[in-house]
Q: What sequence folds into this?
């Protein structure tokens, strides 16, 4: 599950508003302070930076300088649980996160 969340090439597969994402300076993967670009579903390119990173557990980012979602994986009976953290002022983004979580589930279960 964690691998899916940190693989920027996979973000369009589960992120409803992500068309493409790349890491800057040929970074080998997500890590604290890694920078990159994400293209929205309408083709707008936005820079991002990873602001918190706890390998295998959680990462957060800023997109275009604005604090965005956190992504967390925790152990659960029979597997694990993925959780998104959404800033209080971004409540309208919750339906997008709900779609993303369902897509992640389908990808992991190969549905």
A:
């Amino acid at each position: 599950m964690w691998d899916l969340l940190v693989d920027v090439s996979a973000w369009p597969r589960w992120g409803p508003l992500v068309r493409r994402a790349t890491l800057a300076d040929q970074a080998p993967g997500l890590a604290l302070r890694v920078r990159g670009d994400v293209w929205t579903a309408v083709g707008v390119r936005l820079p991002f930076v990873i602001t918190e990173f706890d390998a295998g557990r959680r990462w957060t980012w800023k997109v275009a300088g604005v604090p965005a979602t956190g992504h967390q994986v925790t152990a659960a009976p029979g597997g694990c649980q993925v959780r998104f953290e959404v800033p209080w002022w971004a409540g309208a983004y919750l339906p997008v996160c709900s779609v993303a979580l369902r897509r992640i589930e389908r990808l992991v279960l190969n549905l």
Summary: The chain has a mean pLDDT of 95. The two ends are 15 Å apart (CA to CA). Strands lie at 18-23, 35-40, 45-54, 58-63, 66-76, 79-85. The chain has three helices and six strands.
